[in-house]
Amino acid sequence: MMSSFKTLPTLSFLFVTLFSLAHAATFDIRNNCPYTVWAAAVPGGGRRMNRGETWQISAAPGTTQARIWARTNCQFDASGNGKCETGDCGGLLECKGYGSAPNTLAEYAIGQFANQDFIDISNIDGFNVPMEFSSNSPGCTRVIRCTADIVGQCPNELKVPGGCNGPCPVFKTEEHCCNSGNCSPTNFSRFFKERCPDAYSYPKDDPTSLFTCPTGTNYKVIFCP
């Protein structure tokens, strides 16, 4: 009787684990850029990706505030320590925290209200690599893309090596960062919105930039689609 009782927590844990795995979303990340990028994901870590290479990560239901992005012009030693020109995450190959601006972001939350996933591309932290974030399942047809020549056309005030910074990281003002939750588009945010209308250009951009797919959808993120 005692030994049977002891197995119950193990069986319960196994059931929960299998249930979570069965409903986890997969993200197929692909580098189509004609140059090497160092993909990053929180949760997920990071890795070097040459042109044409892929990397798959997964996220369990309940995962929120998650991000996938590309880093450029990186140098890492054998221990995975180094630095990237754009998107650097504390000098680590396998990211444990968010990257530094500028970086084009794929953001998501899995298994949220009414069994929906929330997905978006954001330029609030600027832009470094063209991106597509889309469904990889037949139950959702959502495709989000941001492929304009933002780096080449970047306003002088936002230009940095390898990217185009967001106005909030540059100016750090309420007008651009919207810490109070009460703000409007600016000329700088409109620069991003005009070129990538489906992507976040400032923090209150939800109506035109936040999309849903049913929980259970799998996804793909393509750098330079």
Automatic annotation (TrEMBL):
InterPro entries per record: Osmotin/thaumatin-like_sf, Thaumatin, Thaumatin_CS
Disulfide bonds: 33-224, 74-84, 89-95, 146-196, 154-164, 168-177, 178-183
SUPFAM superfamilies: Osmotin, thaumatin-like protein
Residues making up the signal peptide according to the UniProt record: 1-24
Alphabetized CDD domains for the sequence: TLP-P
Record has Hydrolase as a keyword: no
Alphabetical keyword list: Disulfide bond, Signal
Family: Belongs to the thaumatin family.
Protein name according to UniProt: Thaumatin-like protein
Naturally occurring in which organism (per UniProt): Durio zibethinus
Phylogenetic classification of the source organism: Eukaryota, Viridiplantae, Streptophyta, Embryophyta, Tracheophyta
